[in-house]
Amino acid sequence: MKRIFLTIICAAAFSAHAQKFDGLDLTPQMGWNSWNKFQCDVNEDLIRQTADAMATNGMKDAGYQYINIDDCWQGKRDTQGFIQPDPTRFPSGMKALADYVHSKGLKFGVYSDAGAKTCGGKPASRGHEYQDALTYASWGVDYLKYDWCGCEDLNSQGAYTTMRDALHAAGRPVVFSLCEWGQNKPWLWAANVGHSWRTTTDIYPCFDGIKDNKTWFQWGVLQILDAQKPLRTYAGPGHWNDPDMLEVGNGMTVNEDRAHFTMWCMLAAPLMSGNDLRHMSPQTLGILTDKEVLAVNQDALGVQAFVYSTNDNVEVWFKPLAGDSWAMCVLNRNKDAKKISFDWKNENVADSFSKRDAHFDATTYSLRNLWTKQSAGDTSKVFEAEVPGHDVLLLRLEKM
Ligand code: GLA
């Protein structure tokens, strides 16, 4: 009896310990990450200036929180194995930098990798997981992106679970962002391990294309978008599919940036801006901070959108929203403009996953065009519009 009791106590203690931080990331994480624009060219001035920009340019007000340094902040490990930041790039140290970011009312994130070295060849966390987690907690880290370079002989679920447990043992709540590129189908096992998981290889600022880097490929917006379609039932509050960070403001056209951003909102994807926040055009800032569009991403239901119909390379997507509302997005994948016509009373939108449906013959919804900020009538009339090439039309439907 005593032994059974002890076993139960041990099991309870273990399971209380072995978990991710719950209650975080209940709507998709919003922030900034250095990689897409700066790659390894990171330093503390850039991070401070980026925090200053986010705190004052409207992004913080719109809900952006995290300032995350990606690869290449690392220097060497000290004689006891504790990781140090690169002393030239981060001379004031990481604690001072985290304090600065926190003083702006923002949160601070870093990057590591489950292997011995990061993708950029810097010291990574293999064999140092608990030590690194303690170090991050002592600095005040709120977010960890954890990569997968040099991990060929590791089991993905095991490696990420080790880091999850290390973070939990260190005691400071951390959003844990898995980045193993979908190689081991993390959507099947990572809901209890992390708060989001990358589903594909890296994005690059291209709307429709694949970039051949000889040993690996990068994907454009449409290629990544298509890979999310079968994964929607795995995502929800606190455990998101991550189609990679934003390329808004990094070289695509304004139409393409708008379409990219809108689709990431429809997907309930993490929104990590990846451009230079210190210097951006009004159009880029306008896209990143549109509160009505962001409300689609941050909707409390946390349901990823689905493709309702496809015609002539034009897709109609629906996303159920809290309070019996819907978002409807028309994505024109073509380079040239397309006219669309949508006769609501002949359409029956039903989602068995979220158990939501919209019977337009029985219920009328008002339509608001979220990008133009104009009413688009209601569902009692046929909806007609022209969508420019590589662009979207985004409507919010509210029951009348
Ligand atoms: C991988 C990740 C990227 C970035 C780089 C850093 O490619 O997928 O997002 O973190 O490593 O080296």
Describe the protein.
By secondary structure, the chain is α/β, with parallel strands linked by helices. Helix content is about 25%, strand content about 25%. It is built from eleven helices and 22 strands. It has helices spanning about 1-15, 35-40, 45-55, 60, 95-105, 130-140, 155-170, 220-230, 255-265, 280-290, 290-295, and strands spanning about 30-35, 65-70, 75, 85, 105-115, 145, 175-180, 195-200, 210, 215-220, 240, 270-275, 305-310, 315-320, 325-330, 340, 350, 355-360, 365-370, 375-380, 385, 390-400. An eight-stranded parallel β-sheet has the order 11-8-7-6-5-2-1-12. The protein has a six-stranded antiparallel β-sheet with strand order 13-14-15-22-19-20, covered by helices on one side. Strand 9 and strand 10 (about 215-220) form a beta hairpin. Helix 9 (about 255-265) packs parallel to helix 10 (about 280-290) and helix 9 packs parallel to helix 11 (about 290-295). It is globular, with a radius of gyration of 22 Å. It starts with a helix and ends with a strand. Residues about 10-15 have low confidence and may be disordered.
Helix content: 25-40%
| Major sheet strand order | 11-8-7-6-5-2-1-12
Query: Beta-strand level of the residues, as a percent range?
Result: 25-35%
| Distinct small-molecule ligands in the complex | alpha-D-galactopyranose
**Low-pLDDT ranges:** 8-15
Look at the helices and sheets and give the structural class: alpha/beta
Whole-Å distance between the termini?
Answer: 63 Å
For the biggest sheet, the summary is:
8 strands, parallel
Roughly what is the average pLDDT, rounded to an integer?
A: 96
Number of helices: 11
Alpha carbon gyration radius: 22 Å
Total DSSP E strands: 22
Shape call: globular
